[in-house]
Design goal:
Largest sheet: 6 strands, parallel
Shape: globular
Structural class: alpha/beta
Order of helices and strands: HEHEHEEEEHHHHHEEHEEHEEHH
Radius of gyration: 20 Å
Length: 353
């Protein structure tokens, strides 16, 4: 870390200290269904709170962790984490740091007892703002939030334990597609700084986590339903038990030769969720999905990846399918600029979104 950046981060550390309590508990809240970047960043902040300010951090989130690699990653955590629903409601509001998300972004359920005091993120979407009075640890365009947290730990002079270095390396790698996408020099420096501190056996166990049999059934369904048109590939899952499979399928489709855009949809109980991916430098996936997902929906993301959810509790099965087909057609039109007649056959009955 060069001297100018170190001075900048040290000043940010002082500003962060001003919004933190002098003692007690601080919630660390990643986005719902947290990915490796959110989880590793949360763990890094817990270390920072404990060593720098002697505060007790507590990682809490809504949703679940179901992707095999992420479950394996959590088995190596030395910090405890809790689902929001497992916590007893406190009498007073608890200061909270939001990680890899911003309150009001649509991808995080803010606990009723959480008082936002800080945000750490590598991107704030259009129309989103860090709440007034909160510390803003945000650098748009950075490859990973984990990179920012690493810089804070370095500026604070803290030693990062092997287990944490390992999960942070994995987080940066997955968030940047192994340093191919949306990567700045600061991401490269963080990766290079963490790598020598890794437990490589642990890193290998995370990358090659055992997969449940149900994964292969959903993979087979996704491949059977896969379609391509131009530079776009997409698929759908009828019944999704674990939402993380949807972005995983989108990631897999994006690796197809000559494909630069991919998305996957899936029904999760009373919601339709969608995950969009692109390898294009200026994809603006978040903008695409927010414009095309329609009303009564939530969406958010970054330049090359985004996700959204549409509530469908009061719709019949036919209406749900029609709404899904309309979303598929709208996304295709947004990417390709138009929808050809052959695509009408792939998404019958869909209306222009």
């Amino acid at each position: 870390m060069d001297e100018s950046l170190k001075a900048e981060v040290c000043a940010a550390l002082e500003a962060l200290g001003q919004v933190l309590p002098r003692r007690g508990r601080v919630l660390i809240v990643p986005h719902d269904y947290p990915d490796p970047d959110a989880l590793a960043s949360a763990a890094g902040l817990q270390l920072l709170l404990a060593r720098r300010w002697k505060l007790r951090g507590q990682i809490v989130f809504s949703g679940a962790v179901s992707r095999a690699e992420n479950i394996e990653m959590l088995t190596h955590f030395r910090y405890k984490w809790r689902l929001v629903g497992q916590l007893a409601t406190p009498r007073r509001a608890i200061p909270a740091l939001f990680v890899d998300t911003t309150p009001g972004s649509g991808n995080v359920d803010v606990p009723a007892f959480a008082q936002p005091v800080g945000v750490f993120d590598h991107h704030v979407g259009a129309g989103e703002r860090v709440p007034q009075g909160c510390f803003a640890g945000v650098v748009s365009g950075m490859g990973a939030t984990t990179t920012l947290v690493f810089e804070y730990l370095e500026a604070a002079g803290l030693t990062i334990p092997k287990w944490l270095a390992s999960v942070m390396v994995y987080a940066i790698a997955t968030e940047t597609m192994d340093l191919m996408a949306e990567t700045r020099q600061r991401d490269l420096d963080a990766y290079a700084g963490l790598l020598p501190r890794c437990n490589f056996k642990m890193l290998g166990e995370i990358r090659h986590a055992p997969l449940p049999r149900a994964y292969y059934a959903q993979l087979a369904e996704a491949m059977q339903n896969a379609c391509t048109y131009g530079r776009v590939a997409w698929s759908h899952l009828d019944t999704v038990r674990h939402p993380e499979i949807v972005p995983e399928i989108a990631d897999l489709l994006l690796r197809m030769r000559r494909i630069t855009w991919a998305f996957c949809t899936g029904f999760v109980r009373d919601r339709l969720i969608v995950s969009v991916r692109s390898s294009q430098p200026n994809a603006r996936c978040e903008r695409l999905i927010k414009r095309r997902i329609g009303k009564n929906a939530s969406a958010g993301g970054h330049n090359r990846m985004a996700a959204g959810a549409v509530e469908m509790a009061d719709l019949s099965q036919d209406e749900r399918c029609a709404r899904r087909d309309a979303l598929v057609k709208a996304l295709l039109a947004g990417i390709e600029g138009r929808v050809a007649e052959e695509v009408q056959k792939l998404v019958p009955g869909a209306e222009q979104g």
